[in-house]
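Form 7-S
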Amino acid sequence: MTGMHDRVNNKTELMLASLSTMMSHGFKSSKQDFTFGPWKVTAAKNHIMKSKDIERLAEEMSMPSLPEMLFGDNVLRIQHTEGYGIEFNAIDALKRVNNMEDAVKVACAQEWQESRADSEHSKEVVRPYDWTYTTDYRGTLIGDNMQIKVTETAERIDMEKLKAREQIMFFDDVLLFEDELHDHGVSMISVKIRVMPTSFFLLLRFFLRVDGVLIRINDTRLYHEAGKNYMLREFSTRESKIAELKNVPAALYTDPNEIAQHLTLKLTVCEKLELPVIQPQTAVNEVLQ
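Output:
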């Protein structure tokens, strides 16, 4: 029965995810705020960045080109009433892309670069760079006067606990960027969050499929239980060459949720995000006196 419930849950999430992705491709901007205790969750979706803005940004970032669909104003933010928090945005995700090295050397890489080389603003020499836009982005810490402290930990997110039947009070899925790699696959990163009565859970997923070559998934999971003075963040990299996936139906290659379990786990990093300790105002006043 539990398995069926999980499948129904997964189907609902997938349906919601594809629906919100379709909406973010459109021209309707939206901004949703949801309050969870002292936290405010904000999901903002806006238009695709204009090509002239993308070109200017590419110049600033020393990259020959940026993803075709770049949602530079899209953001998912989790902010405490004290000002600190964490947010997920496309520009910071792109800053983690290696702009010095062509990481996946395949026949289509040359063809892909040549297809863009004749654009009016391209450089005379096409610099090598990671044309797959692979990023190990895990979020951007925010807060002027106080910030969350990050330390490695052995503690893991209890995924079983997350499978419990809890009402989903808020759900959203925000696409940050997507590129079809000149019809040779897909590179995309999106972030989704669900808020339950006692906790929230977030998944930032970078998904790369280079047709005939490889599939890579970089996942960042973030979990916070109400009342605890920390969040747990787990980052993982999974990757397999297509040749290693011979026993997996090709239909699954395009579905990150399905293919993830078949990919080889290459790296896991578990972190504790400790929340700042707020000194009581009275204690501060006594010290001042």
